Amino acid sequence: MAPTTATGTPVARVQQAVAPASAAGTRSAGRRRGRRVDPVFYLFLLPTLAIFTLAITLPAVMGVFFSFTNSIGFGDFEMVGLTNYVALVGDPAILASYGFTMGFALVTVLIVNVLAFALALGLTSRIRAKTALRAVFVIPMVVSGIIIAFVFQFLFSNSLPALGTTLGVPGLQDSILADASTAWIGIVVVTAWQAIPSALLIYIAGLLSIPGEVYEASALDGAGGWKQLRSITLPLVAGYVVINTIIGFKNFLNSYDIIVGLTNGGPGTSTRSIAMTIFSGFTSGDYAYQMANATVFFVIAVAISLVQLRLTRGKAAL
Amino acid sequence: MPTPPLPSGGLSRRTMLAGLGGLGAALALAGCSAPGGSGLRSRVTEITFYQTKPEAIPYFADLVARFNDAQSGVRVVHDSTSGIAAGFVRGGPPDVAAFTYNLEMARFMERGALSDLGDLPEAARIRPEVQQLVDQYATYPGRTSVLPYSITAASVIYNVDLFEQAGVAVPETWSELLAACETFRAAGVDPIYSTFREPWTVAQGLFDYTSGGMLDVADFFERLSAQGTEVGRGSGASFERDFAEPVDRMLQLAEHSNANRNSRGYGDGNLAMAQGQAAMLLQGPWALAEIEKANPGARVGTFPLPMTEDPADRKVRVNLDLALWIPQSSRKQEAAREFLRFLLQPEIQDAYNRDFLAFGTTTTAPPVTDERIVGMQRYYDEGRFYQGASKAIPLTIPAENYVQGIVTGADPAGTLRTMDADWRRLAFRA
């Protein structure tokens, strides 16, 4: 009997199939080495490259340049070297905004991912009206952030205290946004509410990508629901968790519209985010100083993303 | 895989895509063209006019229409914005503007961005005390860069009916004010309605009134600027020292406010005054129109907040609600000046100030007649006014937020020290 490979194809036939293929490969590789790349591929890249450079790279470089000046946004300016950066390091308002934004981003990323994963598990199981429920849960994503913020600000300032007073709940008698120690909770709740749908969609995609046979095989081996979740589901969606965490953290570092609509940095300056501080430079004449702040923020954000990618190397699904 | 043969005689995909692309490009280019037609009828000079008050938009739209109809040489395009910095940064400010004048506008003025209007005859009619308000923030030597158009005076809005019912007279000293608050408390009425959720109401109300009634605000900031990076260390002007007592009295007044003050906003305050829920509201005359909308029959008046035991110390807070200017970079200055002089005609300027409960800036301006603000007329005539402290602090230092922090529980002395430190840092950078 002729020797066969695992699937039963005679070895000789496989060898025959491989040989011409490799010959064709070397022939085409030779062709590739000798021939120029069709310039039309560069032409395809050109519009995107031009727009990206004009709209993103060039303004960023200009911003970095202005951070070494004392410009107020227009008119004459002088180069002042590193004065802005030196002043930045000793400014407690800026350091406080970094502290608040980092802490807020960490807490929100955790909450969003846990809740979105739990929801995704529910929405990919065999419940009724799955599609309708998925549509409902995606609605927060399509509403503008500032509108959500103003509506929730009204709810927190009026409806929730009214409910709290009627039911006699101790912490809810007055608006939680009016107290510096609880205002961040309101912001976390609203940001999470808006961010969960996008994480949810990614987790649903991840859960649906797990083949059903794996679960069947584990059930045959006697694994219960909880064991399946821990040993099958979580390792297989680890890549999607990584994506959501990196993207989510970056987005929450940039939070602006929800905070402006809810508390506008108040009470006092307890909920001022980095983006709010940077943006205030345009309207307050502190342009160059906030450009320095923005440059430092950019470096920090890139560093955090690189660290995250390094820690999760090889596990990203996409 | 070979492409299927094109249908003969019909529209090929390539032709259709080319056609759509051409149509899209044509539409995009059409969108880029100048609005309102251009070029052919160039004898009509078109100028842009910006104005900053949202509630005055219909009023000014009407004025612009009148001007456009009355002559054919200049056509004014009316637009509105609240952030003028972007226009200057882009190099495209309006040709003429009616804007609130404060520290932020002064930045443009001191860099020579505004043209000189001193040669206009209307400039000579401005009251000297009012022109001084402009100089308080910045000057560009040798130029009259802005012409004040409308001054709003702000003080305490009070409910006349509630005062009469409780038998309280308008307080003229600090102790009379505190006694009035006690009387209202005993009668079950909130003495003051506060809206701490919105920082600007605290800054322009409690903070500015208490500091303006006890300090010489203009002089304080002059001394503060002179010290630069030495503020707060040793002698001289500082927030920590000079504002300690005004802030303390501000907190006393906050105590006499409604219990839910931390979560109330500007609109809630106006509604509460209209419904007679509180006796006093520390808000400017812009709220009077809102109160009237909620309850046309509400009887309200105004009196300056007394902060000392001497009634002669009482002053009202003013701000240059509208000031007219023409940017130096405008290429249509002649046409812009025509519109400017149209606006500055007494019948137009006086009518505006009357309709918007503001005070005129010229020597010939008539006294106000509206009973709600007539109480402030004599203070304005006698020059007993000041510009608010919160408006003299650069926006880099979030003074409004700091003040909101103080009234919602932050340590007053610590916050004032922070303001000194911020001022030092700003002086170091500038």
Describe the protein in words.
- The complex is a heterodimer of chains A (318) and B (430).
- Chain A is mostly helical.
- Chain A has a domain at 91-284 and 296-311: MetI-like fold.
- Chain A has 13 helices and no strands.
- Chain A has helices at 11-34, 40-66, 83-89, 92-123, 130-142, 145-167, 183-208, 212-220, 225-236, 238-253, 257-262, 274-283, 287-311.
- Residues 19-30 of chain A have low confidence and may be disordered.
- By secondary structure, chain B is an alpha/beta fold.
- Chain B folds into 2 domains: 45-151 and 319-375, 3-Layer(aba) Sandwich (D-Maltodextrin-Binding Protein, domain 2); 153-318 and 386-429, D-Maltodextrin-Binding Protein, domain 2.
- Chain B has helices spanning 13-32, 57-70, 85-89, 103-110, 128-135, 160-166, 174-186, 199-214, 217-227, 239-242, 244-255, 266-274, 286-294, 333-343, 346-355, 377-381, 399-407, 412-429; strands at residues 45-51, 74-80, 96-101, 147-159, 190-193, 278-283, 300-303, 316-325, 385-387.
- In chain B, helix 8 (199-214) packs across helix 11, helix 8 crosses helix 17 and helix 12 crosses helix 13.
- Chain B is globular and about 85 Å long.
- The chains are: A mainly alpha (318), B alpha/beta (430).
- The A-B interface holds A 70, 72-76, 83-84, 87, 90-93, 157-158, 161, 174-175, 177-180, 264-270, 272, 280, 282-286, 289 and B 83, 85-86, 88-89, 91, 104, 107, 111, 113, 196-197, 199, 260, 262-265, 394-396, 398, 401-402, 404-406, 408-410, 415, 418, 421-422, 425, 428-430.
